[in-house]
Amino acid sequence: MLAVFAAVSPLVAGPGGVLSWGGDAEGGAPFVEADPADPTAVRGFDVEIAEALAKGLGRTPRFVQVAYQTIDQSVARGDFDIGMSGVEDAPQRRRTLAVTLPYFEFREVLAVRAGDEGRFRTLADLRGRKVGTLAGTIAYDTLLAAEAEHALVPVSYDDDVHPYEDLARGRVDAVLLDHVLAARSLKRVRGLAIQPGAVVTGRYVGVLARENAVLRDSIDRILMEKMRDGTLRRIFEKWNVWDEEQAAFQAREIAARGAEDREKKEISSNEKIVAAHGAATRISSSDTAMGDAAAAAGVAPAPPSSLSKQSSSSSSLSLVLSYLPSLFRAALITIFLSCVSMALAVALGIGIASGRIYGGAFARVLLTLYVEVMRGTPVLLQLFVLYYGLSSFLRLPAFVAALLGLGLNYAAYESEIYRGALEAVPRGQLEAARTLGLTERQVLRLVRGPQAFRLALAPMTNDFVALLKDSSLVSVVTVVELTKQTAIFATNIGSWALPGALCAALYLAMSLPLSRLARRLEERWNAPSA
Amino acid sequence: MERSLGLSAPVLSIRGLRLARGTTEVLKGVELALGRGELVALMGLSGGGKTTILRVVAALEPFQAGAIDVDGVPLHPGPMPREGALIGLRRKVGLVFQLHCLFDHLSALDNVTLAPIHALRQPRAEAEARARSLLEGLGVAARSRSLPRELSGGEAQRVAIARALAVDPPLLLMDEPTASLDPARRNELGESLRMLTGQGRTLLLATHDDEFARDYATRVVILFEGAVVEEGPPEEVLVHPKHPATVQLLQSKRKEVPSKRPL
Description:
The complex is a heterodimer.
Chain A: H1 2-6, E1 18-23, E2 33-35, E3 38-43, H2 45-57, E4 60-65, H3 71-76, E5 82-83, H4 91-96, E6 98-99, E7 104-113, E8 130-134, H5 138-150, E9 153-157, H6 162-169, E10 174-178, H7 179-188, E11 192-194, E12 200-204, E13 207-208, H8 213-228, H9 231-238, H10 244-261, H11 271-276, H12 285-296, H13 308-311, H14 313-358, H15 361-376, H16 379-389, H17 398-424, H18 427-435, H19 440-470, H20 482-493, H21 497-526
Parallel strand pairs in A: 1-4, 1-5, 8-9, 8-10
Antiparallel strand pairs in A: 2-3, 5-13, 6-13, 7-10, 7-11, 7-12
Chain B: H1 2-5, E1 12-21, E2 24-34, E3 39-43, H2 50-57, E4 65-70, E5 73-75, H3 87-92, E6 93-96, H4 108-118, H5 124-137, H6 153-165, E7 171-175, H7 183-198, E8 202-206, H8 210-216, E9 219-224, E10 227-232, H9 234-237, H10 244-252
Parallel strand pairs in B: 3-8, 3-9, 6-7, 7-8
Antiparallel strand pairs in B: 1-2, 1-4, 4-5, 9-10
Helix pairs in contact in B: 4-5, 4-6
């Protein structure tokens, strides 16, 4: 089961082992996106750079899906060797992680509605206005600084699609994000314009765990090779993000590092890498030409879509269909995760409820405390603590952390249901059972438990349906279940309409039969006997 | 009294039983002895402690002082003993609750066989055969597959009696057995109880029903303010009461509705 999401791209390990790299396929093209032709594979410039790095190391690349916001924590706890999907070079990263050479320079650019181009040219023009961006990025830090300076209002988003949609709708008046994201979003959202010139520039880097500094040094060497021999340029050209600024950035990097690396071993030609891994990296030549034109003009690529084949409605149905297998697979993960977590919650819940009714004073206090803490804090926080918080001394696999997190949390709720149900069984029946010579344990097992279970069934079904939906939270610990898969898919095709409907249908297909089964059982228990 | 002591030792003997709940003294030195085959009606005003005596003898409630002996098994004052220490007593005493307290999720037959199978470790077939004959004897064999909620008050009571008898206790306690019965059912119950005493079983009934006591009890015991104030054959005690409390009880009978306080 674990393998399903641990190895999204099923590759045979090379002789030198595996280079596992983490990225967020929800980030989408041109960084990392699920391949429409093969939803189990990913493609994008980060994908190709990772492949080139693996090749240089004599290893086989293996992709690990991780939420963009948690790449740092995941790489630090060893979920993968290197994180790279639009990871910005920021001081706090350098403090806690081993950071590679920058491989791409981006410009934070300001997007506004087409009618506002004259009004909102710079951040200073946006006094008192709302400006959206992605949380935890350099752009966000820039906006926070501007909040003090220009009294604008930063609005943080968890993804890069909604800020632009909200801009078009008028919920925000500008969006500050890097030129790659801006160019991509302008293809999807109509009526927006990008102000020329960068508000600030930044660089994308790979991040490794601190103790992996040796691997980082090897990777730096390979990155420099790929810059010198034009491999990186070819990758960026292919993904339409090569321009003069990029060329200037690479020239500066090469000049800075050139002296120290010159004596190192000769660089072999690497064209074959791209050829070898080109299967998942097709892009139409007309799109490339379009991008080149834009690049030649010295601005971020303008609206005409490099993803036009994806947004044209005629082929969108077949595109959706191509994602169905991965959605079904994700739905299976959701079911498996929910069932096992629920089983854990039920078993623990019974134990907690019994302990609170039959246990000694100390056990009762302890169990009550457990229930109150688990119910009183967000399950999201509990997942974070289990997966990242404990990782320094207990490195739980993602799926186990997800199971435990949901199971431990729901156990608190289940125990309250059982406690209520156990206490609802009439005392007289318990006393009758005692006078008949049944032990307390037998009274619980034969008289109290079975009746309590009948009372608990309806609320339990309710909780299971809730758990089915709450299981979507485990994507924060890098488990890709149905909702996450849908989000990845939606980012890819630039619309939530169809993926959302499909996802909803799958959740309903899982929860409705369960509610029916519970109703049937209740009816059977309430039916007159033969 | 001589009748209760009979030839052998009493099946139930209670001496100096005292019980207080908080500051309220409920039982203040109860003295009572039942010989084999007796059917004793324990009477008294509501709140007089009738039900409490049954609960104490069935080891559902602790008591502070006194001595209880059920067919050779003693019960001591102080906190409730552990369940292991009560196994002997459970075999000696059966209790039929006023509200029957059948197990709602089990059929009549399964209610009766639960204890024989799980407490006495009888084979299921044996337990069921005996349960069927008990239900048969009590006239409810036809309802053995029914769930408690499908039974009438009288049927439920007879199933509850069968359940209590399934572990074959020499002493059977019943709380207000006639409270939910119409006159015809009352007589059926009386005949059933007589049949049980005929088999050598001893019955102690807490009841308000002086007519039932007159017709079926071998002895009537009057409880007043936590102590026995008068006892004797029903035709004496209920026709020529000596104690003012008995007089008051018989006068109030015509007005009072039986206590609904469940066990």
